[in-house]
Design a protein that fits this description.
By secondary structure, this protein is an alpha+beta fold. Helix content is about 35%, strand content about 25%. The N and C termini lie far apart (about 65 Å).
């Protein structure tokens, strides 16, 4: 069986275990097996061993519940793995579609061509992160239309709004910055190594914000009320992974988020226009009000 098929099975295992409430071994085997392939117990146990060793994702057995579960506390990042696998599957589907008929390209419209710009830098940057190698590059400043040379201790890569960014610490400082790969030129992996700061986890910081701009606000509860129509869209595409539905009826769609609000989050709220009302915290209510008043001033 191909490695692609194995990766698909990995994804199916994670999805099923997360969706089901402590599925038994037999339930998992039945789910993974189909008319063409019968999955054995030994194959499943080998799969969860590979998931743990190769990807840091632990599928464990709970003897009290008598079923398997995704041990998120001991797993590195199951959401990232699932996202990566879904991207691979999408790529494969599109590849097969184009193979069937090249004219199918005429019926495909991608969101933004810039998504692919700089993507060739992913492998070398990922390698430098893994090896703790310092990188150097020239980065374009759009507002000033200038290029500046940076030396960076790279900590991770993040995808946001169809673009990839490298996150790291400016060499010989404690300043954390993000740089769009689409604006990076002349990337060089230096022989110099850096020692990662164990107290510094910039990737994890993004778990509590919307977008790429760090927030000085503490983690807090944010409550938003939307129109029922807008709520239908938010059910399929959440604003943030912490999104929790409080009210869902014919009058409103109210959600709760646990985040560190930043400017990008405020811009996100403003993008919903009159479909949203900020309920709490009070300081955010006032800030959005002021932004709306400032916007009105542009239309005299």
């Amino acid at each position: 069986m191909s490695y692609k098929a194995t990766l698909k099975r990995f994804t199916r295992i994670i999805d099923f275990v997360e969706r089901k409430n402590f599925p038994t071994l037999q339930e998992i085997i039945s789910h993974l097996s189909d008319n063409e392939n019968e999955i054995s117990v030994s194959t499943f146990k080998r799969d969860i061993s590979h998931l743990s060793i190769d990807f840091g994702i632990d599928i464990s057995y709970n003897s009290v519940k008598r079923g398997y579960f995704l041990d998120k506390e001991n797993s590195i990042n199951s959401e990232t793995f699932a996202r990566m696998m879904h991207l691979l599957q999408t790529s494969e589907i599109l590849q097969e579609t184009i193979k069937d008929n090249r004219k199918n390209l005429n019926y495909l419209s991608f969101d933004n061509a810039s998504y692919f710009k700089g993507i060739n830098l992913l492998p070398p940057i990922l390698e430098s992160i893994k090896n703790n190698s310092v990188i150097q590059f020239s980065h374009q400043n759009f507002s000033q239309n200038t290029f500046k040379l940076y030396t960076l201790n790279p900590y991770g890569l993040k995808e946001y709004a169809n673009r990839w960014y490298v996150i790291g610490e400016i060499n010989n400082t404690k300043e954390i910055r993000t740089f769009g790969l689409d604006r990076i030129n002349d990337l060089e992996i230096l022989p110099q190594k850096f020692k990662p700061n164990p107290k510094q986890n910039p990737i994890q910081e993004f778990d509590s914000i919307v977008g790429l701009i760090y927030s000085t606000h503490p983690l807090q509860k944010v409550v938003l009320s939307f129109t029922p129509l807008q709520g239908n869209y938010l059910k399929t595409l959440a604003i943030h992974p912490s999104q929790k539905i409080i009210v869902d009826d014919q009058e409103q769609f109210k959600i709760e988020l646990m985040i560190k609000p930043n400017i990008e989050f405020i811009q996100k709220i403003l993008s919903f226009g009159n479909s949203v009302t900020v309920i709490e915290p009070s300081w955010l209510v006032e800030e959005v009000k002021q932004e709306l008043k400032n916007a009105i001033k542009n239309y005299k």
